[in-house]
Amino acid sequence: MAFQLLLTLVVIAVLCIAYVKKKYSYWANYNVPYLEPEFPFGNFKDANNISMADMSTKQYRLMKDKGPFFGMYFFLRPLIMVTDLDLIKTIFIKDFSFFPDRGTFFNHKDDPISAHLFAVEGNYWRTLRTKLTPTFTSGKMKLMYPTLKAVGDNFADFLEQVVDQGKELEVKDCMARLTVDIIGSCAFGIECNSFSDPDSRFRKFGTQVFDKPRHRGLVRLFLRLFPEVGRSLRIKAVHDDASDFFRGIVKDTVEYRQQNGSTRKDFLNLLLELKHSEVPLSMDEIAAQSFIFFIAGFETSSSNQTYCLYELALNQDCQDKARKCVKQAIEKHGGLTYEAVCDMAYLDQCINETLRLYPSVPVLERKAFKDYKMPNSKAIIPKGMKVQIPAFAIHRDESIYPNPMVFDPDRFSPEEVANRHPCAFLPFGEGPRICIGLRFGMLQSRVGLATVLNSYRVTPCSKTTIPLEYSSTAAVLQPKGAVWLRFEPL
What we know:
Blueprint: H1 2-23, H2 26-29, H3 52-63, E1 69-74, E2 77-82, H4 85-94, H5 122-132, H6 138-163, E3 167-170, H7 171-188, H8 201-211, H9 217-225, H10 227-232, H11 240-260, H12 267-275, H13 283-314, H14 316-333, H15 338-341, H16 345-357, E4 364-367, E5 372-373, E6 380-381, E7 386-389, H17 391-395, H18 414-418, H19 438-455, E8 456-459, E9 484-489
Parallel strand pairs: 2-7
Antiparallel strand pairs: 1-2, 3-9, 4-7, 5-6, 8-9
């Protein structure tokens, strides 16, 4: 009896080993270069311990010279990372019909607020994208600008009160307050008052989504690779209290506007107009789109301004040039007007160089909608496989950007940009699924940075962490811990 049990266990073990070996031979069978996996995690053993930016950069540097793409494994599931810029352009643009979806996990039934524009797929995404695009034109940005500028003025007053003759400030906190108030006002028409109430619920839940996501690295990867399994298990992507808060805010605001016949030139008003279109949006769908507008606009712009001020503090010559640019535009246009913030070329270069060094999403993803034969290869990307594009690693590749760790805004002069591959810079993605709110994000960053640079010199202090480390738990690229700088009135 004991012998039979032992024999059975041996047979099971042999079969399991054979099964694992077969799974891990996927890329070898196609003669595709691949990273050697480690059972059971594949190539993602460190996903809970280091940031996605650092992990993907390590993978990229090991394999970028092996060919235009290479294979990896998440547990037993194969996926592919693309390193060649021409192939990235093909996937994002030319062959977009094969890769129209990001494959981001959402659960429309159990977690409706997760079914937003960034995540949803197929015809629903196309319809929604078409309907929402008009709200992000330059004309709509100009209409929203007075609301944004009013928050910028509050920010200037706040800095004047707290800085006095010079003070060390936690920059991540300051910029988060600014962007929370801007998005709250421009999206919902609500005064968040983060400068007087740093613990406002808008800020609390906005921060929670990124700093303390519901799931950590391995689970997030699992949900992206096996979304159907996650939905069948009724797994949620957003914390319940955050979901309840944003859905409640939208419901209350919509009811107030309908009862009082009030309108504002904001994002929520456009969604309300869609509610009565031929393909009406439900209240949950309106809440989901409002949620992603708030979350994405709050975090990406906040982080960009934080990182930019950090780099300008370490590179005073660049800061002086940026300040000169800001002051000339303000003088030319008679204040910090919409025309002025759109006429700050060098500041834009600083923002873009910051986005190069610190893209909010370090790894972009696409999911194959149908089987795809990789160009000049026998490899087949089957329907459902995830394709990763390592934006962070590409942005720091010295063969593309010489001395990549040096903060150099001149990389984004018109001449330099024209000479560089369009897919060498991917902070907003590329192709039809490029970030819909990039104009608004840039506008926020210009206002925040111009407000600081016009009145203050920013320098490192004893609390400044050099170099920065990145959080392994945050859902996007965030500094690990606080970012302290000294503000000195000019």
